[in-house]
Specification:
With 583 residues, this protein is of the alpha/beta class. It contains 22 helices and 19 strands.
Length: 583
């Protein structure tokens, strides 16, 4: 019997039989509390006051049958019933079991003596049955709640089987795809999406069936409309832990993605030969998934060219992330790239996905890769070879499908010789190198660059209009040598725009003279300019700069140039250089 007192209601009209039952339970003492009733009426009165753990009832009673206890309110059927009969036969047994009796015994001294064991067995079976009912009820409630969520969720919820066919889709999926559930179920991603999208979706599904959890953002063309989604796919397991399918949840983030997008770098309109050559190589690189190394001075636009490669690749619908390795503290760089598990270090309060995971299905640019520490270079090399890694403090391998681009303003060959950059990593990332030209070598692009920068600043600063650059302003911009490249050009234009009075645009450029700046000249032997044309241009530039520095004083300008004043006058007349100062 149970540790607490078991309440038993005995319904028996024959006193001798009632006493026999009492004697059978007497050895159990206080473990059993036995109450008695001699008919159905008294029994029902007992039941109105309290519900026993067990009822033992005679088959024939003065006012009915023992099964009548169970024929009333079903709320009272919260207890098992053992039926006793003086003359057992098959019909009695069948009728009793149909009425809800758990067990029945034929009255005899042996049967009375065995009642405690029978009662214990019946109570144990009843408890198991009750637990089963509670489990089924909990499951029913859980299924109802899940179905309510499944049916009403705004997110797309889908379930696939081991053959990657849809088995369940919620109404949000139907609304998004414009198809009924019956038109989706049984089909695969190849039946829903186009080539690249279907291929990537299948790749992700196969990784999930291997036990991975894959999360990422992507753009899909649904009913000819590009839509952005944040999706997570997890393996479905049965009670034995075996994977039996895939559950995916996708959230429509199209509006957020549109707000986050910056104007894309097109580059097709740039007239300079140097930039057109770089773009030609970039378009070629975009057609494959190899690691690319972008080389160029700081501020020359390596990150913009990386975005150009992403936008022209099959990963254009996926995310694009860029990290400046020089700007990340060394002690945090590994966590930023590879993520970390909860408790991996002080302050790691939860799991964090690194940039490599966030770039799932898209592209990650490692800018200034030459700044990474040697230990982190080793881990990055392992990742590039396997496309898998472990988070900081983690034990499980995480595999991803992402394109890696790298960039640096350093000469990595010298860094390798100095022992600051791993030679094997250098060979791994230098599959294809693209040189991004400095702005001084593509001055022809400055008018277009200025227009693009002004358009971007107009949106950022929420301006109603932007100034038009006249020929003198364009000339000033193209004459400057731009040591800070495109980044410096943007700063100059932004500063001028902030101070713009609506009419005159002042450019705050360093003084154009020989001591303030270094002069650069691009000599193209294939052009139609002769040696005389080039030397005349240099002579005119030097004379103009000297006069500007000396405030128009010709004597001082000639001394600064190391020529006679008469020679300076001759050059000024020949090249049309004017000066208000007559000295």
């Amino acid at each position: 019997m149970a540790s607490e007192a078991v309440n038993i209601l005995l319904v028996e009209d024959e006193e001798a039989h009632a006493e026999a039952v009492k004697r059978a339970f007497q050895p159990l003492g206080s473990a059993v509390c036995l109450s008695c009733a001699s008919n159905i009426r008294e029994a029902l009165e007992h039941l109105d006051e309290s519900v026993p753990h067990l009822v033992i009832a005679d088959w024939l009673l003065p006012d009915g049958k023992g099964t009548d206890i169970l024929s009333g309110d079903k709320e009272r059927d919260l207890f098992p019933v053992i039926l006793m009969t003086s003359h057992g036969n098959e019909k009695v047994a069948v009728d009793a079991l149909k009425a809800g009796v758990v067990d029945y015994v034929v009255k005899s001294p042996a049967a009375f003596a065995a009642l405690p064991r029978t009662a214990e067995r019946v109570l144990r079976e009843w408890e198991l049955l009750a637990e089963n009912k509670r489990a089924h009820e909990a499951l029913r409630v859980s299924e109802e709640r899940f179905r309510a969520i499944f049916e009403s969720a705004g997110d797309l919820i889908l379930i696939k089987d081991l053959s990657l066919r849809y088995t369940h889709v919620n109404p949000a999926c139907e609304r998004t795809f414009g198809l009924l559930a019956s038109e989706i179920i049984g089909r695969t991603a190849k039946d829903i999406y186009d080539g690249d999208a279907a291929s990537y979706s299948t790749d992700v599904d196969e990784r999930v069936l291997q036990g991975e959890v894959v999360e990422g953002e992507y753009v899909r063309r649904i009913r000819a409309v590009p839509m952005a989604f944040h999706e997570i796919k997890v393996p479905l397991r049965n009670g034995s832990g075996n994977i039996i399918g895939i559950c995916g949840v996708s959230r429509d983030i199209t509006d957020r993605r549109v707000r986050e997008l910056t104007p894309h770098f097109t580059g097709d309109a740039y007239p300079s030969e140097a930039m057109q050559e770089a773009l030609k190589q970039a378009r070629s690189a975009a057609t494959r998934d190899s690691v690319i190394l972008l080389l160029g001075e700081s501020g020359s636009g390596k990150d913009y060219l990386a975005r150009y490669i992403h936008d022209h690749s099959k990963r254009a619908n996926g995310p694009f992330f860029s990290v400046n390795c020089a700007a990340v503290p060394p002690e945090l760089a590994e966590s930023e790239l590879f993520g970390h598990e909860r408790g991996a270090f002080t302050g790691a309060l939860g799991r964090k996905r690194g940039l490599l995971e966030l770039a799932e299905g898209g592209t990650l640019l490692l800018n200034e890769i030459g700044e990474l520490s040697l230990p982190l270079q080793a881990k990055l090399l392992t990742f590039l070879d396997t496309m898998a890694f472990t988070r900081v403090g983690g034990e499980r391998n995480v595999s991803i499908n992402a394109r890696i681009l790298t960039a640096t303003n350093r000469e990595l060959e010298k860094e390798v010789e100095a022992g600051r950059f791993r030679q094997d990593l250098y060979y791994r990332i230098n599959v294809m190198a693209i040189i991004v030209p400095p702005l001084r070598e593509r001055s022809e692009d400055i008018p277009i660059l200025a227009e693009e920068i002004f358009s971007a600043l107009m949106a950022e600063l929420q301006l109603n209009r932007i100034p038009l650059l006249d020929s003198s302003t364009i000339n000033a911009l193209t004459q400057y040598h731009w040591p800070g490249n495109v980044r410096e050009l943007r700063n100059v234009l932004e500063r001028a725009l902030l101070l713009w009075d609506g009419e005159h645009l002042d450019l705050d450029l360093p003084e154009l003279n020989a001591t303030q700046r270094e002069r650069y000249y691009k000599i193209d032997l294939e052009s139609d300019r002769s040696l005389r044309d080039v030397t005349d241009e240099i002579t005119k530039t030097m004379c103009t700069a000297a006069l500007q520095r000396c405030g128009g004083n010709k004597r001082e300008a000639a001394r600064l140039l190391g020529i006679a004043r008469d020679s300076l006058y001759r050059y000024m007349k020949e090249f049309g250089i004017e000066s208000k100062d007559r000295t």
